[in-house]
Amino acid sequence: MPSAENQQQLDIAAERAQCTFNPALLTPLFYGGEEKMRQLKKLEAMIDSEPVFDRDDRYFLGRTERFKRALPMVKRYVELRNEHGLTPEESAYFKTYIDDYIPVHLHESMFLPVLRSQASDEQLKVWGPQAENFHIIGCYAQTELGHGSALSRLETTATLDIERDQWVINSPTQSSAKFWIGTLGKIANHAAVQAKLIINGKDYGAHPFLVPLRSLKDHTPLPGIVIKDQGPKQGAVSMDNGYARFNNVRIPRENMLMRFSQVSREGVYSKPIHPKLAYGGMTAVRTTLINHSALSMARAVTIATRYCAVRRQGNVDLATDLETQVLDYPAVQYRILPLLSHAFATIFSGYWMNEMYAEYNANISKGDVSLLKDVHVYSSGLKSYCTKLTADGIEEARRCLGGHGYSMFSGMIDFHRQFLATVTYEGENALLTQQVSRYLLKLYKDVVRNPGLHLSPPSKYIVSLVDYPSFKNQRCGARTLKDMYRDDVILAAFQHRAARLIHELAQAEKSGAGWSDLNLECMRLSKAHVQYIMIENFVNGLEKRYNTPEQQKLYRAVKQVYSLHVFYTMETELSEFLEDGYFSPVQAAFVRQGVKDSLKAVRPNALGFADCFGFTDKYLNSALGSYDGRAYERLAEMTEREPLNLEGMTDASGVVWGYDEYLKPLIHGRVQPYRAREGAKL
Amino acid sequence: MPSAENQQQLDIAAERAQCTFNPALLTPLFYGGEEKMRQLKKLEAMIDSEPVFDRDDRYFLGRTERFKRALPMVKRYVELRNEHGLTPEESAYFKTYIDDYIPVHLHESMFLPVLRSQASDEQLKVWGPQAENFHIIGCYAQTELGHGSALSRLETTATLDIERDQWVINSPTQSSAKFWIGTLGKIANHAAVQAKLIINGKDYGAHPFLVPLRSLKDHTPLPGIVIKDQGPKQGAVSMDNGYARFNNVRIPRENMLMRFSQVSREGVYSKPIHPKLAYGGMTAVRTTLINHSALSMARAVTIATRYCAVRRQGNVDLATDLETQVLDYPAVQYRILPLLSHAFATIFSGYWMNEMYAEYNANISKGDVSLLKDVHVYSSGLKSYCTKLTADGIEEARRCLGGHGYSMFSGMIDFHRQFLATVTYEGENALLTQQVSRYLLKLYKDVVRNPGLHLSPPSKYIVSLVDYPSFKNQRCGARTLKDMYRDDVILAAFQHRAARLIHELAQAEKSGAGWSDLNLECMRLSKAHVQYIMIENFVNGLEKRYNTPEQQKLYRAVKQVYSLHVFYTMETELSEFLEDGYFSPVQAAFVRQGVKDSLKAVRPNALGFADCFGFTDKYLNSALGSYDGRAYERLAEMTEREPLNLEGMTDASGVVWGYDEYLKPLIHGRVQPYRAREGAKL
């Protein structure tokens, strides 16, 4: 009998052998095509060869140490970017691949986009090149201690001093302190500060101002500004999210970012022409978060699938005397494989969203903002749904690893902590569902008023509500389990459910409920609509991408993943298909059977799918999920580097720090012996 | 208008004023009565006055620092325990209250119980007092790198050398290394090692042996033993979970723990009389985990409720110009208040389990093991359900805190990381559901064979399946929403659902499915049964504890929490009540309405319930959840202690460590400037 270690390598080889398609054919899809993949794989190799980005020690480091490691990364990143002239896309991938939020991350992902979109052309000519070259390092200072994303409630003020032609920036209260601002705490020398613009006592609402924070000469904080790092967080430990308070800080009038609004030398305020254009940034970030969700879910699935393929526990096969591969238990398949299916669904919806956003951006340059609403609503809905799905999914995948999932060496914990922030930032997930539902409700009212109205495909189904009596009598047409696999049956079911929830929301509103009493209805509806469009995007994405004959094997395999996604989602939401009689009990049973059958169908290809995402071992940084399956050896190896085992904490004879002072007195009986207290009182 | 800080104090006072009962009346319940509460509150004060247990710095410390802080805690804990003669219950509470796993935690919670239950009386006479006084510090070494809870697959061997009257302990393979053993890595000088007992080549299966690990004189590891700390983990960072490998380690024959099995000088093996008695330990720990779940859920709810009462965001009241208390949004109520209801449900089921365990223990001393099966099954089922509910619930509560929930200062993260281990240890949660379902299935078969069979109350409902045709026609009798509040209606619904799932499992088995193909059915059934008994325990617990007239206000308030628990659970599982037609669509609508109504009913008492658990601010260690509601001030205060803001990381002029080397070259333009690459190649 081979040792457990050798068995793991046999198991992983056997898994690879049974895959029905070539995983390498799929990988380019996730890198944006063959050519891009070649480039990005070169970039990965470059980063792997640079010692400052090494991550072998990462799991042993406390926050201060992680921050100290991040500063050399900042410098080396900029050097390499400049030396190789990395494209913006490559720069972004660089920072994804090093898998740590270096403290200039938000300079590039928030400050620069805000500067580019909000500064006037003249301002950009001056500040743009400085910021792009990191002479100016900036942060985006919106959130305050007491105020989240609602710009209207910010307390920081920028008051015009007409005489001196300056703005005076103030944080009048504790709760007005800027808080959560990445790159602010220690690194940034400028901030794009959102502050209430005040002229002659009149409040014009929040506007962005470029405020110098630290001396460009020696980095000392400028007078009137208190800046601090805001302390430890769940994740993003290398990032200096910061706290800042302003006390009569003066900046030139020209430091207001003046692309959309302006204030003249005379103190005259001019309104923006398109007020909503100033909000484009959040939409862009939300779109990114959908792709980020897909990547993160795929990462968790890769680790979980590989480890559950080489981990053997429980039932013993009498012929081989081997325990069962954990991945062969339905309970494990049921928890991991749907996550794989969600990863694919999220990938396809990410593409869909990217394309919509690109079209919107192209239109804007032509002055056409017609897509703004759709981009806003769909990026909100998908962000809300996909970040939650992924945040919960990673944790579920971690739990499938058994005890070793609790070790940092699992590679499942550090990136999950980082990811957990996404459910809150750029619009709290529950809150975002209101935007989606309000939009659908409006479309419904519009189409009732005007039944000939053209609705774009993802919400076209709302038309079915116009003839409500016949809508109410809609029933699912599936007579067999096989019917249940048909795209028309599936889409009709999801459409019916979402439409019903729109109708119910409208009824509730009509019967006098205030909008904020309808939170739960909005949450339910937004989820139903998003689940529907994700399935539609999955179908369309598949058709679009695997239509050549040689890709048919691939197509069939991914189609099984699609069915799993559909059935699992239906099963999770089963009551919503049952409660108005749309599904019969028999159809509900089809759904449950569909889940079981799909799990069986996907199981043989599980490792192939894990491989297809193309993650490197360096990136995964996981003892349990590496390509070669040597989980136990790697776990044991990694313990060697644990600081508690090294000099300073364990001496040459193997005795732990503190033994003489804290343990020896106990072991040698130099502490008063224990005797249970007599009487009740302490 | 008051400042946000003052407003927070006004808000929390207003919340306290609107509570319909006196929270202080409830607190003793959670401490086990008035008298115990007085004692334990004294203990809390004693601990708070001891500097080594101070937790102000905790969130800033990396793992090595946390471990270094834990050693003085170990010594001081033992000194105080001995000095004051703390009872075992008080000692246990001591370690709960300091809220950190000190590295001797498992000496007392695992090693000592194993020693007491598995060592013979003669062995106990020698080792017991030494272990109780920490001269022997022990760990319980069962889990191996490649093997979890299945004793039968352990690889570590103990081979009898008859000639020298010794056991020879070996770890023959990498995967046989002991792993995850708390207190092993650095602290323990003995281990109760589970190893395959081998005599003359015959394998008698796993048995426990007392193996010295480190010299009692100077703590150096003994020859033939490699011991290491196993590295960083999700939580339990102060604990030295360890790795050990044995190479021909010799111990006296008498070091086998011989209460149940014995091996004589001649090498003759004697079997235990009651084989299952050796497994009592896990059941005890599982029972504790139910209580631990309740406590942890209550803690998360306390923090979330207090902060959401003082946090104002979103809609503005025109009269007061105040934003809405976050706790007034249904979306927030829907995520926090059901957790409160689950905390109560878990508390009552914890009591029920404690009582059953106490009865079982009392019986055992009389040689009666009849309750073993029940204790095993119910502790498994409840542990599986309650730890998952709580692990997920804490995270949900954290997300309700908005952005500040991501700060360690929220007080929601550190203890959650610790708690997350419970879903895996002492029986992985998904796995445990098989025990519950197998038991129910057996009862079903028994009662079908013998319809007169007496079933104990929590599974009595199975009898209804005997007349299956009339069972199949059962329908929920609720005609109004009010009917739905009736205990008989509620319990009947949960009984019907669980019984149906038992029947379906039996059918699936009859139709030829292997047991391990029925994982999903087992998971579903176990959950249904546990949800049912939790509701029954809630009802009974309420009746038992609040039956005096002066407690009627309390009773009414907790009863609303009970209804919320019921409706929320029903809504979560709605499809399982609908899919066989037991609920009609109208009844499903009652359930959804019941959730909304219950949220409204519980809302005014939310803060009262948060207060009633009696947590001290020291224990909560949360900027957001302290009793006085001063959330923003505390958050700002806590940033002062962040090491990045202190000497070593920030100099006197406010400049960060590493500026000269890593930032100045960028800011001062000493790095090659950026120019986008020409041509595609990297």
UniProtKB/TrEMBL annotation, chains A, B:
Similarity comment: Belongs to the acyl-CoA oxidase family.
Gene Ontology molecular function terms on file: acyl-CoA oxidase activity; ATP binding; FAD binding; fatty acid binding
One Pfam family it belongs to: ACOX_C_alpha1
Main location: other
Gene3D superfamilies the record matches: Acyl-CoA dehydrogenase/oxidase, N-terminal domain, Butyryl-CoA Dehydrogenase, subunit A, domain 2, Butyryl-CoA Dehydrogenase, subunit A, domain 3
Domain Acyl-CoA oxidase C-alpha1, first and last residues per copy: 279-441
Name of the featured protein: Acyl-coenzyme A oxidase
Record's keyword annotation contains Nucleotide-binding: yes
SUPFAM superfamilies for the chain: Acyl-CoA dehydrogenase C-terminal domain-like, Acyl-CoA dehydrogenase NM domain-like
Cofactor requirements of the protein: FAD
